């Protein structure tokens, strides 16, 4: 409210009335659609085959899924590996992608606060001292008839635009939705980063085990080949047996460099995930035997999935922002009100003087109604409506993709459980077969070539068993990622993040 001691009661009342009227107008409803989340189809599900294990999966190998089970924020701790926990925490603290997402969230939050400032009047003060020489061909504007004088104008200006049809309210709503989008972008970035670290750690353990297993096989085959050479020199083995052993050794040695290459590349990935260059040391190693397969595993209900998946919530925030933009475009076609007032003093000196003779004030209201804009405002609204339809379809596609991703992970859980059971059975059978073959060779009932075949089968079975075990851990990690990763349970968010419960 504009006030000044020199204003009369009538003047103050005349100044106050329009502002009170403007305050009442703020209660007007905003134009444009009110946002409602699209309803989830009642038939939305992961599919019966994804939820229920196939008959081929033995009961002892079936993962236990608990429908509606909550997920901890630090879900990677379910593997009970202190090294893994420390590495994930280090990545979340140091990865530049996470820090970028945090900065984007802070920027979006400041945009909301800035837009809310338009709800309030704009007040500014100015002082304008001047030294003037009035043309002597004209009459002096002063009572003293002086043509050279000093004039100092001091005034306070107030400008206020009431949000008659909710244009600013819709703009704030759109920016709040954009802020939510950045918040879920941060949650998605953290979830993806944690999942990538877990996957890279599991790969580190698998490749390390495969390299050690292959190196052990090479050493055994080298000893066997050396024994064959001595026997061949004594005429106890044929050239064919010696050549077969040499070929088997060469084949095993050839499989080692690709494993080493994958291992080193994966170590570079681990360094990058924690925000380091490959040249900086990363003193961490993982072992499949030190990890614990989490039991039971969670399974979100369909309605929970759309609440918990950061990508779905991001798509919903985009949809909400697009809905609010329709209101912004529609409000631009309605009348707008601008109230301007100023009060001040004009003194014939460099020092302001506030008295009845030098004071002035004014107030004006301008009501503007667009009449002809060449179709610009109409087509802006239609463009906003089309953008909303685009966002709605993108939201539906994201929901479908979320269910597909979760179902794929569930299929992998059952299939890899069956694969682990088969790999264990194959490893046991190959061990038994090799033992029998070696006893038969000692008795002279079996050729050395047959034993070589049994050894090769056993080596492959052991490597396949390592891969099957790693797949089970990877499937569990993928399930936690597919279900959202528990961001809603984060009681101590990182800087720039402010998790909100998904419950509405």
The termini sit apart by 39 Å
SSE string: HHEHHEEHHHEHHEEHH
Q: What sort of overall outline do the alpha carbons produce when their principal axes are compared?
A: elongated
Q: How many strands in all? A: 6
Radius of gyration: 38 Å
Low-confidence stretches: 1-7, 494-504
Percent helix: 55-70%
Describe the strand arrangement of the main beta sheet, using strand numbers: 2-3-5-6
- Give the overall pLDDT as a whole number: 86
Structural class: alpha+beta
Strand-residue proportion: 5-15%
Total helices: the number is 11
Strand count, sense and barrel status of the largest sheet are:
4 strands, antiparallel
In a few lines, what is going on in this structure?
The chain is of the alpha+beta class and 504 residues long. The chain contains 11 helices and 6 strands.
Description:
This protein is of the alpha+beta class and 504 residues long. It has eleven helices and six strands. The strands form two sheets. The chain has a four-stranded antiparallel β-sheet with strand order 2-3-5-6, with helices on one face. The chain has a two-stranded parallel ribbon with strand order 1-4. Helix 9 packs antiparallel against helix 10 and helix 10 packs antiparallel against helix 11.
